[in-house]
Design a protein that fits this description.
Strand content: 15-25%
Helix content: 55-70%
Largest sheet: 3 strands, antiparallel
Distance between the termini: 8 Å
Order of helices and strands: HEEEH
Structural class: alpha+beta
Number of helices: 2
Shape: elongated
Number of domains: 1
Number of strands: 3
Amino acid sequence: MSMLMTVISREEARNENMITEYIKELEALPRGKITPKTVNGRTYYYLYYRDGKKVVSKYIGKNEESLTTVREALARRSQIEEMLKKLKEEKAQIKKLEAML
C-alpha cells in the first residue's frame, strides 16, 4: 500500500506544480477577443476584454505582425485554460483515490 500512496503523492505534487506554472503563464497572456474596426476605409484592430464590469479596448495596430502575435497569445491562453481544466479534474480524481486508501 505504501508504494501506491507514494505514487499518488508524487502525482499530486506534479499536478499542483503544473497548475501553479500554468496560472503564472496565464497572468502574462492577454485575454479577450480581437475585433476589427474600419474607419475611412482603413481597418484597425482592437483587443476587447472585460475589467470587472467595464469593457476595455486596447489598440493592437494595423500591421499583420502585431496582430499575429496577439492571436498566437490568445490561442496559447485558450490551450492553457483547457489544460488547467483537465488538471483540476485530475486533482479531483487524485483526492478520491487518497480517500479510498
